[in-house]
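Cross-posted from the bioinformatics board.
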Amino acid sequence: MVAENSFWVMLVFLIMGAVAPLFIRKNDKVLNWIAHGLAALGCGAAVLCAITVLLQGKFVVQLPLLLPFGTLTVGMDPLSAFFLLLVGAVGCMVSIFAIGYSTEYFHKRFPAMAGFYNLFLLSMILVLAARHVAAFIIAWELMAVVSFLLVNHEYEKHEINRAAFIYIVMTHVGTAFLFIAFFLLARAAGNMDFALLGQGLDAATRNIIFVCVLLGFGVKAGMVPLHVWLPKAHPAAPSHVSALMSGVMIKTAVYGLSRFLLDFLGNGPAWWGGLILGCAAISALLGVLYALMENDMKRLLAYSSVENISLILMGIGAAVLLTSKGQPGLAALAWAAAFYHAFNHALFKSLLFMGAGAVVQAAHIRDIEHLGGLIKKMPYTAFWFLCGVLAISALPPFNGFVSEWLLFQSLLVLPQAVSGLSAKVAAALLIAVLGLTGALVACCFVKVFGVSFLAKHRSEHAQQAREVSKLMLLPMGLLSVACLTLGIAPQIMLEILKETLGGFRGLNVHVLSTGWYQIAVTQNAAVNNSQLSMPVVLLLMGIGIAAGLLLYRICGKPGIVFGETWTCGIVPNARMEYTGTGFSKPVRMAFRAVLRPHRSLLVNEGNRASAYFGRSLSYEVGITDIFGRAYQPINSAMLLLARYVKKIQSGSVQLYIGYIMAITVLVLIWNS
Amino acid sequence: MVELINGITQSFLLLLLAPLVSGVVKVTKARLQNRRGPGVFQVYFDLFKLLRKDSVISPTVSWIFFAAPMIYLGTVLAAAALIPVLVSAAGEKYGIGDLFVLLYLLAAGRFFLALASLDAGSSFGGMGGSREMFIAMLVEPVIILTLLTVALRASGSGLALMAATAAGTPFSLPYVFAAIAFLMVLLAETGRIPVDNPDTHLELTMIHEGMVLEYSGRHLGLIFWASSVKQTVMILLFVLFFLPWPVTAAPMNLVAIGVKTLGVAVLLGCVETSTNKMRLFRVPGFMAVGGLLSLLALVAQ
């Protein structure tokens, strides 16, 4: 009962938040508090609803609403509830952040933004709650359109307009594939209710559905090579919306994929898992490489989302493969790793996007090469951002490490599970790819934090930065604490995951045992026996650091003299600092086959008189976007097609009436 | 609980003994270069000297710069507590040590040092940090692939379990391949000569030393000490997984491990004297050879 009631309360709050801007159009300040406050309350109710569902079991409601496709059902089962918990927890934090951040957007069509923000949250929750094909598609489309409107908020700027356009095109390509998948499912089942889907499928149809689903949700999740919209659209949106899009919205794709694989399609052949794993490995590596090359803070975070979503997909791929090999326990482990990482990524990516938003509000620039020294201007933001950076780099004792560990464990069993030498070697390489990705992520985030927050300020903007308001710091702090908590006490999340996954056939969640201080993977078949006790790790780190402090002071009171670094007699300035581009150069050179870097050095442009004195240098370096080129043929084909279609689009009403007439006549002839 | 106390004892013993291992490497190098060189205990004297000195620090730095040496030492000591030397003596099946915990603890220390290298705002520090992260990026997959040879047979990533499995079949063909690969990783990870030069003070060739260029006095002492412990941890991993023979009862086993560790230290000295440092962009090729060898080991298994 509690679950249902809180579900309706949540809907009411969010709908009120969505319509509030219609009534309060004049006073942005009041609207800011009301709209985002209602969003935060709605998300709070969502968390309550999710927790009660996880504790007490699912509920389904038949709505007295008649669609042309049958009765509409809405409900929550543990799988939806897990993702609802994610949306609610992160959404609540982001809404509080938005109260502080939105002051930037006052008098810039703010009512529209606030309303769409609530609608965006609502649509994501409806995607999770839908129990009917038509309802799901409608919610999915609502989510796409509303997020498009949010991305396109500053439509005067050409690049934002362009990014939003690419986003809406790509997301509809994805939806088209989902349409096919759902159509095939519904036709086989003869019904559109989720409870009945998955019946009467033959092997070939299942394969087609799988490929469509992977492509459809792959677009939304940002899987390479379908990711092209993501690094454009996420940075274009206002920062709190970016936090939601990167942290939460792409998880709805994970939800959709899991719903299909766990619920509708059931056990698949091994190549499904192999296909997902292959795509995920490539996309993880490319995602992090592009992130490392990026200097725009928000775009970098967006590329990093591509990488993180790939880690989640890697877990899912391993799970599908292990299920097909008849390993229910290990499959549960892999699902748990994927979902754990999904939750973690939602926490730390929204934290990092909020940090980036704080930086943008304070310094008004996103290029890390022009930031620097912010740790002194914005100490709290810097500290919370550092927590996010440590979590995303999977360093103990933060939560990213635990999910990475689980992922390692689930990949570790793959070489034994698969048969054939090449498959075994591929499985081993996959583990190495995961390790490589982890190291590249660490490198990438050393660069982000080191270049933008440490050393001297590199521009006037960075010098004038001031600490942001407490309303923005509070949610960042809470999310950091959540990251640390889920790192030290992974038992909490594992118990939730056991509830989430326990109901699905083909999974045995008992392989994941939790003790009061450790989590362990145990299997009597002795395929994987590993345990992780994060409190012990934390304790050992603490003792080690204490030992360091003791050694530091062992020979009396330490004396510190401050003196500038010797730079051959010149006063050190910010232009002598190592740049972000320089920091990533070794990696750029090592992966030049993929990244295709190019550079041009212009000396003394057009001014021969001063050949020996006061020369001007211009240096340009960049990488080639191979995916932009890959889409080029499709793009030109579409344009060519449009040119032909243009011939029948004259623009005169008479002609269109003529078309309607002709079609009607044709239909009549056809039917007779 | 017993295991935890053993682990902590072990990390303090390593803290005390690690400079000796560094000393042995130095003496070996000196002898092979026909120098008399400093004594075996010179590293202790150096550390003691540094720990008494004041620090000169750039006014640009933030708290990260001061915290980094402590965190580096802390993570390295935590990693040292996980090695199954004294820990496995407690006789539990799993042990508190896990391979990935160990690797990511070391990564955490490196992460903070690299951040600190950017903190002072000088180019050399940043260059060192960038190159250190680059080499870490090359080492990470290879080290995982190498130890996978052991981990796959052990069906798990617990260090004690892996050591016990490795001791079961010493010097089998896959392990020999993996051992060579691990030796290459060891050279790269501890900043030894074909990859990095621990003794250089020529700015353009420094990697690890460049990263800590801004440090002086006590902070530098802590970093040196931590690097020394880290090197010993890596050598111990090599000894436990790839030189498990002879396995004897507990007290003798400890002596044997000590002797083998010093032996590997001498070997490091020899390798370092007999090769020259390679260009930075040759390192990917060097590590690729290591990766291929460990793949070969996996195939042979």
